Give the backbone structure.
Amino acid sequence: MRRGTVGISVVLFMSLLLANAAIPAFAANAAADAGSPAAAAATQTATQAATSGMAASMPSAMDERMHACTTCHGVQGQGRNNDYFPRIAGKPEDYLFNQLIAFRDGGRTYPPMGYLLAFLPDPYLHKIAEYFAALQPPYPNPDTQPLPASVLDYGKKLVTQGDPSRKLPACASCHGARLTGMQPGIPGLLGLHASYIAGQMGTWRSGTRHAIAPDCMHTIAVKLTDRDITAVSSWLARQPRPEDPTPAPKQTGRLPMACGSQPE
């Protein structure tokens, strides 16, 4: 479905809602103008019933409104057992909001997300981000696919120490010592499939995924080799759930490099 078709559908839907609300009110006003108290009272009752019916048909809780998200990302945003729908629960609110904006405005490209978010305003995207940031469902089991120890050791080294010779900072220096992310805008790296992590690193490297300038992840990713990406993603995907899965507080010192999504 093209974005224009979605736009027309939304406009028609909103028009019908407005019409349903307006018609009983118009009838009540017309009856009152005609000078018939009984008719006015009857139509006023109809107006209240219609309004009540509309309110009852609308979701009353945020978890009900989030079905469009949880259908793919899991009931509590815990992610799915595949490479396409990652864990979004428990990540910093600002990070989630930035990703919603990126999907809506073209910084990230995935048509279903683009269509879903195309007409949602910033305040509602903030509500979505706030909702999922507050959730902490259980993490999935770590990956167990056999890999040479040398690959995992190399991945651990890059994650925890980086590679100063190439000016590659350690992942932990920004994503937190527990790798659960850092407030307000850096995500956790645990509970994700290796192939998903590798795929995102590839999009950062190719420039098909963008962030707020200066785009620190692109700066890092263009320095990574395929070997680096395989090692890092494989090691991260094998880490157990941390005792404290919440994002770390914002650190007082500077990050290894300027990052637009984590203003200092």
Observations:
- Confidence is low (pLDDT under 50) at residues 1-34, 49-56.
- Residues 3-33 form the longest helix (31 residues).
- Residues 149-237 form a domain with the Cytochrome Bc1 Complex; Chain D, domain 2 fold (CATH 1.10.760.10).
